[in-house]
Amino acid sequence: MTTRIIRHIGELITNDPNMGDGTKVGRITDAALVVDDARVLWSGPDRNAPAADEMIDVGGAAVIPGFVDPHTHVIFAGERSDEFEARMAGVAYDGGGIARTVAATRAANIGDLREQSSARVDDLRTGGVTTVEIKSGYELTVAGELRLLALARELGDEVTFLGAHVVPEEFRHDRDGYVALVAGPMLEACASRATWADVFCDQGAFSVDEARHILSSARQLGLGLRLHANQLADIGAIALAVEMDCASVDHCTHVRDHDVERLASSLTVVTLLPGAEFSTRSPYPSARRFLDAGACVALATDCNPGTSYVTSMAFVVALAVREMGMSVDEALWASTRGGATALRRDDIGHLSVGARADFAVLDAPRAAHLAYRPGSSLVASTYRARR
Amino acid sequence: MTTRIIRHIGELITNDPNMGDGTKVGRITDAALVVDDARVLWSGPDRNAPAADEMIDVGGAAVIPGFVDPHTHVIFAGERSDEFEARMAGVAYDGGGIARTVAATRAANIGDLREQSSARVDDLRTGGVTTVEIKSGYELTVAGELRLLALARELGDEVTFLGAHVVPEEFRHDRDGYVALVAGPMLEACASRATWADVFCDQGAFSVDEARHILSSARQLGLGLRLHANQLADIGAIALAVEMDCASVDHCTHVRDHDVERLASSLTVVTLLPGAEFSTRSPYPSARRFLDAGACVALATDCNPGTSYVTSMAFVVALAVREMGMSVDEALWASTRGGATALRRDDIGHLSVGARADFAVLDAPRAAHLAYRPGSSLVASTYRARR
Asked: Cβ–Cβ contacts within 10 Å for residue A112, how many?
């Protein structure tokens, strides 16, 4: 296999604390990185660089592990900018919310759906994302969710079944019937097409008991678990996520001290989605509170048409630093290795020897520019290992 | 001259209230736009589109007037991301502030300075900016400021002399001597190379009396006036800007009711720079307060290496909507026609017949996506009229 060396890296973020400056992000200045088509073979000071078949000189640019985006809803049709405008103006108009996207997605033919969705995945990739999780959840029928999962597998890296996104219109008067459908036939049909199951467990969505029932079925079918929890209100969803050993509990805007303690002593990652708070003008959760307690924090775009139409992880990093009390290094780690941990992956999100050769070259000498120069992508090129 | 028609525009923002929906942004849906190399010839419903030599079909995309960025400091050498990180972490370290950039800029040869600065202007242009104001202010010697003004003319559209940015190190013990230099020999040497003069009038910068003295000299030399005012504290700078009939008073973070009243009954535009509040974690001024009083509001990037390394007007629009209480239409107007007004230009910032053919085609069906999809540029292509 061809080997390739990336030379004259101004700052290499390895996320390996045994490398470089010994911090959690394992920073090496004046570095080089050697990869083959699949894996990292070597990294270290540029002056010690070994030979390789090909050489790329990045002229002092920073290199980071590829972003891992562990929470997206990128497969959908239509858009809801009118809802956004109304919300920003303080006008009571929701235009239909998730149900509107469900209607548009159901009505879209597969070609249109693929075209619109893959454009969003391309935006993420151009912005440095090398691993993207994609959820279903905008069809809410057995056949429809299967169609979305197939597209998620085609376009993304990790596939999550989210039949429990909302109760669809046709089950408005039979909520229990929909929960039974999701936990039964829908999950049975979908389980082999996904790695993960997720539930929107919140006020106005699914209750803790409903979520427990659905997640239990999913676990029996071999799926890993994740949870949307306490974005809108504290309904006890974080405790459920820990109880069920979810890989990730996402949003966590409304959180109590005992939730933080539970998370800190669990393997459940807290995935924060500041694009949602930005786009809904909601208070940001404090990442500091989780970090100071010792919980593991990840960052994600939450890309969706209602509450966070965000396709830039650099923007998420900038928001995490500006609004959530994270240091630049903490946000860098959370957007790469944190996301990997939220997907229970240890082959991505870092650049130790043997890791996947997934990385991004920045148009900047230091990775801190991702937050220092907000609103620009700053990713010059994204390298994804052969899959 | 060749004529060109842009067809199948999903939403055309003309900023001409006599066009389309009759709002301030003059929105026409299903529109077409006809231009030649220099000017707008026609706009209206696509079904009424006249013939032209060339046709561009934008397939339902939105088209807006090119952004006008009336406040940048894009010509500088070096970077100060370490200061940014320290500030975000709450650590007392300023690394030298503006003086550090002055030292780096003085030390840079013209080739390096041009390369670094033009990359930033390219970023602005790619993001839809068709008119950019550029200030000097990072050399603070007669020869140095002349060098920066020449580069500003080469790279930008409107050139502003900002010798009164800070008192340079070598005048630390002779503040009055520096003010006399700026108001005298420096302005005399620089006046023919600039259209505007600006002063950083704030706590720790120049006083109201010093600013009045410098601006008076500039006016006598035929320059238009602008002012950095009350970013850090209320020192009465807004009243000075109105007194001197400045075209624009910029920042206005600390503002009293009588300042708002003065502005509303003046021709002085309030230019807001939310990238600075984002990057310094400072409270945002309320655009609503100015708008509700009837003052004219513009938006700008304030691109500079210390407090707002921002090169995306789309990001500025998104911040103005999220953080400053502006509606999407108000932010659109402020970032286009507002900026033009802050530069006392009526040939740009709108797409009435006879206006310059400066416009941007978005990768979105509605201009509201600029705020709805924060962190992405969304500008598919920028068209600048022949100069």
From this structure: 12
CB contact under 8 A, B328 and A88: yes
Q: How far apart are CA A310 and CA B373, in angstroms?
A: 6
A310/B373 touch (CB, cutoff 8 Å), yes or no:
yes
Give residue-wise pLDDT tens across range B338-367: 999 999 999 999 999 999 999 999 999 999
CB atoms within 10 A of CB B235: 20
CATH number of this structure's domain B4-66+350-383, picked from the four choices 2.30.40.10, 3.40.109.10, 3.50.50.60, 2.60.40.3880: 2.30.40.10
Residue B59, burial from CB neighbour count under 10 angstroms (0-12, 13-18, 19+): exposed
Q: Could you count the other beta carbons within 10 Å of the beta carbon of residue B1?
A: 11
Q: Give B29's strand partners.
A: B11
> Residue B81: which of A84, A315, A369 has the nearest Cβ?
A369
**C-beta atoms of A322 and B85 within 8 A:** no
Alpha-carbon gap, residue B162 to B152, rounded angstroms:
12
Task: Give the start-to-end residue ranges of the domains of chain A.
Answer: 4-66+350-383, 67-342
Say if residues B246 and B279 touch (Cβ distance below 8 Å). no
Whether the per-residue pLDDT at B92 is higher than 90: the answer is no
pTM score > 0.95 for this model? yes
* Tokens (6 digits) for B160: 């502003």
The helix, strand and coil proportions of chain B, stated in percent and rounded to the nearest 5, come to 40, 20, 40
C-alpha R_g of chain A: 21
B193 CB burial (10 A radius; 0-12, 13-18, 19+): middle
B88 vs A81, A123, A327: nearest CB: A327
CA distances from residue A13 to A29, A132, A365, A377, B370 in whole angstroms, order as listed: 9, 20, 12, 17, 31
User: pLDDT by residue (tens digit) across A240-294?
Assistant: 999 999 999 999 999 999 999 999 999 999 999 999 999 999 999 999 999 999 9
For domain B67-342, give the CATH number: 3.20.20.140
The residues with which B117 forms a beta bridge, in sequence order, are none
Annotate B160-205 with DSSP letters as a single string. Answer: EEEEESS--GGGTT-HHHHHHHIIIIIHHHHGGG-SEEEEEESTTS
Beta strand B224-229 with B248-251: parallel, antiparallel or unpaired?
Answer: parallel
CA angle (A88, A89, A91) in 5-degree steps: 110
Give, in order, the Cα–Cα distances in Å from B233 to each of A86, B92, B252, B320. Answer: 34, 19, 9, 21
Kindly determine whether residue B369 and residue A79, on different chains, have CB atoms separated by under 8 Å. Answer: yes
- Is residue A219 classed as helix, strand or coil in its secondary structure? helix
To which H or E segment does residue B150 belong?
helix B142-155
